Automatic annotation (TrEMBL):
Keyword DNA-binding part of the UniProt annotation: yes
Cross-referenced InterPro entries: AAA+_ATPase, AAA_lid_NorR, CheY-like_superfamily, Homeodomain-like_sf, HTH_Fis, P-loop_NTPase, Sig_transdc_resp-reg_receiver, Sigma_54_int
Compartment(s) of residence: Cytoplasm
Alphabetical keyword list: Activator, ATP-binding, Cytoplasm, DNA-binding, Nitrogen fixation, Nucleotide-binding, Phosphoprotein, Repressor, Transcription, Transcription regulation, Two-component regulatory system
Positions of post-translational 4-aspartylphosphate modification: D60
Listed SUPFAM superfamilies: CheY-like, Homeodomain-like, P-loop containing nucleoside triphosphate hydrolases
One Pfam family recorded for the sequence: AAA_lid_14
Primary localization class, coarse: cytoplasm
Function noted in UniProt: Member of the two-component regulatory system NtrB/NtrC, which controls expression of the nitrogen-regulated (ntr) genes in response to nitrogen limitation. Phosphorylated NtrC binds directly to DNA and stimulates the formation of open promoter-sigma54-RNA polymerase complexes.
TM segment ranges: none
Domain Sigma-54 factor interaction: 150-379
Protein name: DNA-binding transcriptional regulator NtrC
Record-annotated Response regulatory domain positions: 8-125
Amino acid sequence: MATEDARLLMLVDDEPAQARLISSLATREGWRALTVESCDAALSTLAGKDGKDVDTVLVDGRVPGEEACDFIRQIKLKRPDVAVIMLTASTSPLLAVEAMRAGAIDYLVKPVAPERLAVALRSATRLLPARDELQPLTEKLPSILEFDAMVGTDGSFRTAIAKAATAARGHGHVLVEGESGTGKEMLLRAIQHASTRAKAPVRLVSCEGLPHNTLESLLFGHEKGAFAGAFDRQEGTLAACDGGTLLLDSVDTLPPDIQERLADVLETGIVRPTGAAHGFRIDLRILAASDRPLALLVEDGHFCARLFEALSATRIVLPPLRERAGDIPALTRYFLGKIGELEGMKHHSIADSGLSLLEAYDWPGNVRQLQTVLFRACVHEQREALTAHSFPHLNELLGDADRGESRARGLGVLLYQDDGNIRSLEEIEADIIRLAIGHYHGKMTEVARRLGIGRSTLYRKLHELGIDNAA
């Protein structure tokens, strides 16, 4: 609920119904909302007494007055401290690129999902990790990857991928844990895509940020008249996925009573919509994701033990990017290639100075943050190669600290140890093999061919050098 000292959102929108909806959603997130109907009115408000308290501007691209991107430029010129979010009915990447170049930090497509608006507003209040994200553009990248196309040679990461590939062939529920941005949803989609239920019904539900009643009806459904405002019967996603798969994101944020109710469904196989006299049997597989270790939440009494036991038939942990920094060069090349394929974008390479900067950062937002930081750099960089100067926010955060040699040079292999002596041939050979595995996305036949050795020789070297062969 918004309070007097809550952040102020100015909504520039001439559609009363939409303005009321967004204002209501913003209030739930603890914001105060102020609505104006045109760009001219918005500029006047920003220049007045009320405008001094505005933290974020959400502008509908179709409001009367200035062109939306020109309006964004005017706001950033007059109030560079204000975050601007674009709202539009268009899904064109080109429009999002233009909005970002004008100064927008995010881009929402109508109709706006409550959880998507919540993420955008939270991003507007955070520092670099969030403000370097323009999510809809990065969401244009492929949402489903084959397991062997997932970039990374880090041992714990490849172990997680191998475990996911095995789980995909099974029938039990799966729990994927890892920090925000590590790729949990991507892995859930890959498991579903490779499973025996790939062609059966599938739904994705993100639990975070949804009001209790909305989430309850979304999962279990309700009968007409079950509660005030239930004017029609609604089928829940549990029933809609009968015979298929439910992808349940941010399962750690489920309210306690919904946890218990979901545990009952998984134990009995019977779901009963809210207000219904009887339930009905369903056949459902759940692939769940959690930002926090559920076992610890169970110990603290904050998560249902029965639900944890049911979901964790297979438990997979994705490592944070700071623990797999050696994968940053390969991930960078991959993302730059995909970004270059988007409408309105061009292909970029990355220079050593840029790569060293990326490797020196700890990436609290993980792989998703790396992806969006690269996108932002590509939007603004006119030269072909990204350099350290292409990442001004990272430069500002890291300062003039000596970054040393790249931790895992993407354009070569380190030859020297920290004490200045040459590294052993075995270590260099191991690095070259890891680099090749990452470069060719774990396709071992291609790795062997490019290295000029037989496939059996490659696997022998993997064993001798202690390299995880889960790729």
